[in-house]
Structures are given as C-alpha cells and as structure tokens.
Automatic annotation (TrEMBL):
Compositionally biased tracts (Basic residues): 103-112
InterPro entries: DEK_C
Pfam short name (any one): DEK_C
Protein name as it appears in the record: DEK-C domain-containing protein
Region of interest (Disordered), ranges: 89-122
Origin superkingdom: Eukaryota
DEK-C domain sequence ranges: 16-69
C-alpha cells in the first residue's frame, strides 16, 4: 500500500497548464481527421520530455483533447449554419451580383407600375 502512495504523481498548476497548452498546440497544427488522443499524448511527451502515458497525465491529456474537440465542433456547427444561410440566399437569388441586379430591376419596375396605377386612379 505504501508503494502505491509513493508512486502517486502530484502535478502543480503550472505543469498542468503547460501540458494542456502543448496538447492544444499539437491539435491546432494537426489534421483533425488523423490525430488521435494517443498521438497527441505521444507528441506532447516528446516535446515536454515527460512520460504522459500514466495517470494523472492521461486525464489532463484527455481533458485538453475533449475541450479542443468540443470547441472545434461548436465552430464547425456555427460555420455550417452560416454556410447553410448563404446557400439558401444564393438559391433564393440574393447571393450573386447578377441576381441582385435582376431583383433590383424587378423591384424598380414594380414600383413604377404602382406609381402609374396610383396616378391613374387620382
């Protein structure tokens, strides 16, 4: 039992922050389609010259990866929403310069017709 307690690793906040920043930096420069938690841990281990495969390092790595992925997903969802809106606008005719000119001409013609109808009625 004493042996287990002696092997317990205590991490200060500075080291924890450094590990998270290193993992974030690795994730930023990596392809999100190819990077895994294991690869990120191995790269961070090499950069920091620490064996990050043990607890509590594992938990810190997992937390950093999960946080990064959650933020990436939120950003992707936001951008997809913007993209969807742009596509819908383009389909409806509000997205291209040519369509905008045509729409403006149609509105001008309608306005003239309304004005002519109002002046004929008066």
């Amino acid at each position: 039992m004493e042996e287990e307690e002696a092997r317990e690793v205590v991490i200060d906040n500075d080291l924890k922050k450094k590990i998270k920043e290193t993992v974030k930096k690795i994730l930023k420069r990596s392809s999100l389609l190819e990077i895994t938690e294991i690869k990120a841990r191995e790269e961070a281990s090499a950069e920091l010259d620490l064996d990050l495969s043990r607890d509590p390092y594992n938990l810190i790595i997992r937390e950093a990866v999960d946080t990064f992925i959650e933020k990436a997903i939120m950003t992707i969802e936001t951008e997809m929403g913007k993209l969807h809106t742009q596509i819908v606008d383009d389909v409806d005719g509000g997205g291209t310069e040519k369509t905008t000119k045509t729409t403006t001409k149609k509105k001008t013609k309608k306005k003239k017709k309304v004005e002519e109808a109002e002046s004929s009625a008066a």
